[in-house]
User: Fold these one by one.
Assistant:
Number 1:
Amino acid sequence: MQRTDRDRSGAGLRLGALLTALVVALACGLGPGRGGAERPADGSSGQRSSPPQGQQEDGTMTIGEFKSDLRGAVGLAEQYWAARFQENGQPFTPVQQVVAYQREGEVTCGGQPVPRNNALYCSAGDFIAYDVVWAVSAFRKIGDAFLYYLLGHEYAHGIQTRLGIRYSFTIQQELQADCMAGAYIGDSVRDGDLNLQDGDLDELRTGLAAVADDPGQPWFAEGSHGSAKQRTASFFDGYRRSLAACKLS
């Protein structure tokens, strides 16, 4: 998956810290974390998983490739949502920052430490944070399409906050964010802002399965994100039908 060259404006990344973290991550061997999903105590929205075991690496590995795809994913999300807000006559403010971290507690959200093997949107600080070791491991094992999904999903939580969307159960908010991430990617492909490459759709399905809840987790439990079937269905509903599928109003 590759963003086109039509607009590659910068996107509020802490690139110096990211580069340092990536160097350390590569030196540490990129060990995967435990599976399962987690919702931090402050109500921020996050997801945690380990990449699927035994899968072939897709060949996207270098620091430069990771940084380029990350920058492209965030910049494209900003471009996409700015256009949607403009279409509705609403002002748009991008998510303030995307932060890489390596250790639990290195980043806090609403006073709570952000755990390892995680990616989340923190509404208290209006930022996206992700464990760089976990993210690079997923990048290697699943592929660059997963990175666009991951950033799209977390950015969607920032949009939910801007729209004042609240749900009684975590799973409703998470599946809607999957749908919104699907719309962001699908619309960007249709608009010519993102190029699909061979295997990208399979990478997305693999990634969605990797971040799904463990079998048997109750849908109503706090922190539930949805089964692999639910998450895949929500994402591809948005991918095919755009935001009309996501029930934003």
Number 2:
Amino acid sequence: MVEQAGALRTQEAVGFPAELVSTLPGPDEVDDSTPATIRELVDYYKTSRGRHPRATNMWVARSADLLDQFDPYADVDKIAPRPLVMIAGTEASTLPHSEDAIEQAGENAEIFTIEGATHVDLYDRDKYVTPAVDKLTEFFDQYLANA
């Protein structure tokens, strides 16, 4: 895909339209054999729960090399000593990324986990979102109240 990105840029430069790729290709229907992370993404993005008419579920294929180079946690250690809170569900497939970031970010970093929540649950499920908002309110009140 990275090699293809260069070729696609050249095609666009000479007038061809951008090639779009589905963010979540694959089934609209899932079953017990579908990996849990895919099931929850399909449940959110491919149903009325999370679908929006202007959200196309597509990205420009020429950006694959940029996505390949992007690491949101690469410089998290440079945040220190600034306070950092990360919120993750205990069942989130992304929890290890948050834990690694907190470990790198220094003494003023904390992880707040929400029992039973998956990554996508934190998008819109009130029983998980409410404690996340409460934690953020506490965090902002503590660190931004006198800023």
Number 3:
Amino acid sequence: MAHASEPAATVDGTVDPGEAAHFGKLAADWWDPKGSSAMLHRLNPARLKYIREAIDHHWQADEHDLKPLAGKRAADVGCGAGLLAEPLARLGAAVTAIDAAEENIEAARLHAQGQGLEIDYRTGGAEALDGRYDLVTAMEVVEHVADVPAFVGALSAALAEDGLLILSTPNRTTWSRLVLIGIGEGTGAIPRGTHDWGKFLTPEELTARLEAAGLKVTDVTGLGWTPTRGFQLGADTSLNYLVTAKRA
């Protein structure tokens, strides 16, 4: 769960240069399901399920529609090498994907070309978004930024009037510290230095930040993990959680 997506270093105010350098070093094997991003590959199906259900509910789309985002603009902030941006493009969206590590953007562009996908990849932070987007995602990002209120404010500013914002992030609990840092980073399943537990946000804290930015939180769903079932959506937010918000 790890290090999915995150802004890092450029000239804007939300990125953290140290985070950019850390994640940029992982770019080469981002798409390797057994590489340094293996945990992210295991996490992706659960969060894609959540995103698809949120899309269908918000726009009353048919769950069997292969392209429910056709005609819509989507932005993935902190896109890494495109693990979420590519599925969003396949769902029909015109995707803008942003990451602060140039190495990640280069890897993302190369992979998208190989898949025949047109995605507008940009190096930068949330401030690199232009105009308004129907869907804005930031997966495992907010815990890596330099300025949380500014970051959330930039996401809010980029959201269309009927838009949907979806975030995921670890919770700041004893369980998350044990699993993500103690076990995950301790065993090498997650690259060391990926997480700063003190920067994790509780659902209440993130909800307050979103509300301060003029948004209304409409759903909070836990993302749990067990050795036998892997990552599962549910009520338990003690490890990680997803949040859906729209304009208040």
